[in-house]
Amino acid sequence: MRVSKEQAAKNRDRIIEVASREFRDKGFDGIGVADLMKSAGLTHGGFYGHFASKDDLIAEACAASMDQSAEKWGKLADRSPEEAFAALINAYLLKEHRDHRATGCTMAALAPDIARQSGRVRERFTHGTRALLDILAKIIPGVSAEAKREKALATMAGLVGTLVLSRAVDDPAFADEILAAGQAAFGKQD
Questions:
Q1: Which residues contact 43 (CB under 8 A, 6 or more apart)?
Q2: Cα–Cα–Cα angle for 30, 36, 42, nearest 5°?
Q3: What pTM value is reported for the model?
Q4: Which residues fall within 8 angstroms of residue 44, CB to CB, at 6 or more apart?
Q5: Which of 69, 26, 64, 80 is nearest to 160 (CA)?
Q6: Model confidence over 31-82: pLDDT tens digits?
Q7: Residue 140 near residue 91 (C-beta atoms within 8 A)
Q8: Is there a smaller number of Cβ atoms within 10 Å at the N or the C end of the chain?
């Protein structure tokens, strides 16, 4: 039974949405194509009608999740610069963000996996990271124009590192301490 072009496009979008969540939650090697398709409510056989390979899906899923982050960050950046920066830090370093990898930051969930991927995946990730960096650089308070990009890069690396470490430790109190230290360090900009 053939599906309409409109339904095929909806199915493709659904696969990307599910893959984006599942990859962030389980990593690229933590879930196979058959299970992704099942989670999307579709048959395994239909996968190759939408994507050339799992790597093709990984690239699309990374791009989609990075675009979602840029949209969220963009909405936060629409506030005044002082409010936007604090809102972004507070939203990023929340316990809920730490505890829900599947709907959280692609950088914190997948950067080590992405470093081992092919060119297209890394290209999509790089594009998304630059878009987020541009948003962050616009809202960094209290620094000269020349220093904004450098400060944004350091802040982004610190935010991602804080989230990664707080997810990795097995002691909830220590995980909370790591988040609090990140809040204190990155919430204050000169």
A1: 37
A2: 165
A3: 0.90
A4: 33, 34, 37, 38
A5: 69
A6: 999 999 999 998 888 898 899 999 999 999 999 999 999 999 999 998 776 6
A7: no
A8: N
Contact indicator for 149, 136 with CB cutoff of 8 Å: no
**In the chain, count of helices (H) and strands (E)?**
9, 0
CATH number for the domain whose boundaries are 58-186: 1.10.357.10
- The count of other CB atoms within 10 Å of the CB of residue 152 is 21
Distance CA 58, CA 177 (A): 33
Tokens in use for 66?
């990075």
Assign residue 189 a region (left: φ > 0; alpha: ψ between -120 and 50; beta: otherwise): beta
Residues in the chain: 190
CA distance 186 to 143: 14
Distance CA 6, CA 118 (A): 30
In angstroms, the CA 150 to CA 156 distance is: 10
Domain boundaries, given as residue ranges, for the chain: 58-186
